[in-house]
Amino acid sequence: MSSQAQPAIGEMMAASVPMVRTLGLVFTEASAERAVVSLPDNGDFHNHVGGPHAGAMFTLAESASGAIVMTAFGDQLSRAVPLAVRAEIGYKKLAKGVVTATAELGRPVADVVAALDRGERPEFPVHVALSRADGAVTGEMTIVWTLRPHS
What we know:
Layout: H1 6-16, H2 18-23, E1 26-30, E2 34-39, H3 54-73, E3 80-91, E4 99-105, H4 109-117, E5 123-132, E6 137-149
Antiparallel strand pairs: 1-2, 2-4, 3-6, 4-5, 5-6
InterPro entries: DUF4442 (IPR027961), HotDog_dom_sf (IPR029069)
Organism: Streptomyces cacaoi
Pfam family, one: DUF4442
């Protein structure tokens, strides 16, 4: 299991994923079990009701899931590339202000690595809760990732 400091994962994500830079995402926690990323309140990314656009919230949640994937499986990059396979998002309440995504890995790291060791292309979910400053959950997303072995 790999763990990286929050600034390191945030800098790496900003360097490799231009949308992370564009949205100004802030990485405050990143471990193999949990990642926390925030979307600052920026009028350029608002929707018609003054909250963050659904696309910005999707990108926030997907980025939090990517941070957990990179910390959990970064030590596997020499033999596999992590890829998002599919995602489902539900918007539950109006989000206003700063929105925070909290991602949690839905399958033990050891199980995923064992499947990779067996020559499989493992899939695993990452569950993300989106919340506003008052703690209300405004959305939930599940992203299914895979580790695709290098040919």
